[in-house]
Write a structure and sequence with these properties.
The chain is mainly α and about 110 residues long. The chain folds into two domains: about 30 residues; about 80 residues. It is built from five helices and no strands.
């Protein structure tokens, strides 16, 4: 159902106030996936990583080809997981504080 003109103006005013008061939150809300899809995809990538490890280790002696496929699944899922975690941290999503602390420690120890 489309909004009428009055409702559309109210919505635009709310958006303008949000951008003025807290631009970081506004960017986070604008770029956040709906319904926690990012978190679901991260969990699926973690499960795929574990499946890749099991397939690789379970079939290494019997079939190197299947073990190679398990390795490819493992690397692809790890890459996807790292990419989504980094993207969430750059946007400033909630829960990225641990990643910031880890990066700070990494820089200090180097």
């Amino acid at each position: 159902m489309p909004l009428d003109d009055r409702e559309q103006k109210i919505l635009e005013e709310i958006e303008r106030h949000l951008y003025e008061e807290d631009p970081r939150l506004a960017r986070t809300v604008a770029t956040a996936p709906l319904g926690g899809r990012r978190r679901l995809r991260q969990r699926l990538a973690a499960v795929a990583f574990l499946v890749g490890i099991v397939v690789m280790l379970g079939s290494f002696t019997t079939s190197p080809f299947i073990a190679g496929l398990g390795f490819v699944v493992m690397v692809a899922s790890a890459g996807y997981l790292a990419t989504t975690v980094r993207a969430a941290a750059e946007v400033g999503a909630v829960g990225s504080g641990w990643l910031d602390r880890f990066q700070d420690r990494w820089r200090r120890e180097r």
